[in-house]
Amino acid sequence: MSDDDSGGGTLEPGRGRDGDAGARIAHSIREGIIRGDYPPGTRIRQEDLASRFGASRVPVRQALQQLEYEGLVTVVANAGAWVASLTLAECEEVYQMRERLEPLLLRYSAPHLSPSEIQSLADLAQRITVEGADTDTFLALDRRFHLASYAGAHTSVLGDLIQKLWNTTAPYRRAYVASWEADSRRIAHEEHHLIVAALRDGDIEEAERVLAGHIRRTRRQLVKSPQIFAS
């Protein structure tokens, strides 16, 4: 499981320029979606991407196929591509999956995290506390924190699945975090520190418990914010 905070896996190596261009286009659009530059449901036109990146249609199609695999884009044959969108019910389902699966991924990862890696998590948690009043900063550092906490896991399916689930909910989580009051931010910051403390103590059950509650609280608040999902 990579702790790359740009999100998603990497494009499979292509041959020559097309593969390189496809990876470059996928990276740029991936970051834009996660940053909120492309809201859910936004049409992505192949010809616009080809013009913007000075590329042919082949690497553009490669990029869109990769982003579809990562859960960021929906491609409809003979119709086009759109930034993936969720209904409130779909988002709640994804969060219920995350609530159950991410603690398992943390369990796989925790025994393999070195003291220096745990210290890096502590440093990230402290940065989030200090700088996390800004929504963009919080989201970027929070993503780095959680994906880094899973970096010790070596799984064939679970790590990629968790990253997809993160990707699909990113735009809605951005809207939710932007609406936070000070208490909500404080609780999130404290939970990061509690996860680090549990990992330092070797208490995997406690780390799992705090993480599950961390995700559950977000899910419950999202359910109370249906306006976020209005088309």
Task: Describe this structure as you would to a colleague.
The chain has a three-stranded antiparallel β-sheet. The two termini are 33 Å apart. The protein is 68% helix and 4% strand. The chain has 231 residues and is mainly α. Helix 4 packs antiparallel against helix 9 (204-223).
Q: Based on Cα principal axes, name the global outline.
A: globular
Number of contiguous helices? 9
| Multimer state | single chain
Distance between the termini: 33 Å
Helix-strand string: HEHHEEHHHHHH
The gyration radius over C-alpha positions equals: 18 Å
Count of individual beta strands: 3
Stretches with pLDDT under 50, minimum 5 residues: 2-16
**Average pLDDT score:** 89
The major sheet is characterized as: 3 strands, antiparallel
Structural class: mainly alpha
The fraction of residues assigned to DSSP E strands is under 5%
Physical arrangement of strands within the biggest beta sheet: 1-3-2
Helix content: 55-70%
